[in-house]
Write a structure and sequence with these properties.
Layout: E1 2-5, H1 11-21, H2 26-36, E2 42-47, E3 50-64, E4 67-79, H3 88-102, E5 107-110, H4 115-119, E6 124-125, E7 128-135, E8 148-151, H5 157-168, H6 179-187, E9 194-200, E10 208-215, E11 218-226, H7 229-240, E12 248-253, E13 269-274, E14 277-280, H8 283-289, E15 298-305, E16 314-321, E17 324-330, E18 337-340, H9 341-349, H10 354-359, E19 363-365, H11 368-377
Parallel strand pairs: 4-5, 11-12, 15-18
Antiparallel strand pairs: 1-2, 2-3, 3-4, 5-14, 6-14, 7-12, 7-13, 8-9, 9-10, 10-11, 15-16, 16-17, 18-19
Length: about 400
């Protein structure tokens, strides 16, 4: 099988693959072709010039310790049934890692159909979310009814972006959205019972917003963002105002969300759900982009096992001096710690801290003295992403 970009002459073949492999409305496939598809981001597996499978690379920037770094989102991984178990998806993923490295991506993220499958190629669990499934009556009494709500329009794009950044920049892994992303979201308002409302205390500002849908008497919160406790309470009050038509609220929130502490009855259903997977594409760039403590000056070494990306496979020496970070790949086989690229990706993003990674056997310690400092450097961070691809 040959791996190559899927040029425009294969558009009908793309539709056939996606329609067969995903249970999605035809309008989703058409939307992908018309809005997202570009030949340079659609990678295909071909058998005698027939498209056997494909995936799409979404070029994003994501937040990483308050700054943004390039990230490749992997989506629409699909293979026609007669070509499955012939290594089509595997070949696509391996080639994609190489492409992302050439394009300067530091991380990659994807939503897995099976964690075990993608784990073989270096991706690892990087996000967990808290899901609330509660009676709408539990939200009674929240908020004071201050401020105003209005339907969001394309004219709100810049205000939405500002509010989103103020709230989401603190989460590692959150997407830094561009104009196209916002416009795509706003265009869904009013279609298939999807809605979007903005909240402002006064004037034309935007202190919070909510994207949601209502189906079978369930209020599904797709995204709820706010810049203060007051705005959050008013958004929850807005949800409660649907109590005549809704019985239940379903909301996926960050793992550090504390809404339960605002309720009269905290005995509600909360679920911790495993989410997206993460992979470091470029170890050197990731180590250089990490936010080290201002007070840290020193050197450490780490050995990484990455059989799919030879540029990541080996031992790296990290030297930090007065805020300047230098990373060199060295021949010396000795290292302070060693791990797979999967585990490295987890603690670099902050999904787990280095201390926990060591406790779980994901990282092997060779220099206990050096690790004391490293545990204080690579701490657990809250990761969160509401975008799906």
């Amino acid at each position: 099988m040959e791996i190559n970009f899927v040029w425009e002459r294969y558009k009908e073949s793309i539709k056939q693959v996606l329609n067969y492999c995903f249970e999605v409305p035809q309008e989703f496939v058409e939307s992908y072709i018309n809005e997202d598809y570009t030949p340079e981001n659609c990678l295909g597996c071909f058998e005698n010039d027939r498209l056997a499978g494909l995936l799409h690379i979404y070029p994003y920037d994501m937040y990483f310790h308050g700054n943004t770094v390039p990230m490749g989102g992997i989506g629409l991984v699909s293979t026609l049934p007669q070509y499955r178990y012939y290594g089509c998806a595997s070949k696509l993923l391996v080639k994609t890692i190489e492409i992302m490295k050439k394009r300067g991506y530091i991380f990659s993220a994807l939503s897995p159909f099976a964690y075990a499958f993608y784990r073989k190629y270096g991706w690892e669990l990087g996000f967990s979310n808290k899901r609330y499934i509660i009676s709408i009556d539990e939200l009674r009494g929240l908020g004071a009814g201050n401020g105003q709500f209005r339907i969001l329009t394309l004219g709100d794009r810049d205000r939405l972006d500002k509010t989103y950044k103020e709230s989401m920049a603190k989460y590692n892994g959150a997407i830094d959205r561009d104009e196209k992303n916002w416009e795509s979201r706003l265009k869904t308002i009013g279609k298939n019972r999807n809605y979007g409302y903005g909240y402002s205390r006064q004037g034309n500002g935007l202190d919070g917003y909510i994207f949601f849908s209502i189906n079978d008497r369930v209020f599904h919160v797709h995204e709820m963002i706010y810049n203060s406790l007051e705005a959050k309470l008013e958004l929850l009050r807005f949800i409660y105002n649907h109590n005549a038509q809704v019985k239940e609220v379903n909301w996926q929130a960050p793992i550090d969300d504390n809404t339960v502490l605002l309720l009269d009855n905290p005995r509600i259903e909360q679920k911790i759900e495993s989410g997206m997977m993460i992979r470091v594409v470029d170890v050197v760039a990731a180590l250089k982009s990490y936010k080290y403590p201002d007070t840290y000056n020193g050197t450490f070494t780490i050995n990484i096992d990455d059989k799919w990306a030879p540029w990541n496979n080996g031992t790296f020496k990290v030297s930090i001096d007065q805020g300047t970070t230098r990373v060199d790949k060295i021949e010396d086989a000795g290292a302070d710690i060693s791990c797979s690229v999967n585990s490295f990706s987890q603690f670099m993003l902050g999904y787990i801290g280095l201390e926990k990674a060591i406790e779980l056997g994901k990282v092997i310690v060779h220099n206990p003295q050096a690790v004391k400092e490293l545990k204080a450097i690579f701490k657990e961070q809250v990761t969160f992403m509401t975008d799906r691809f």
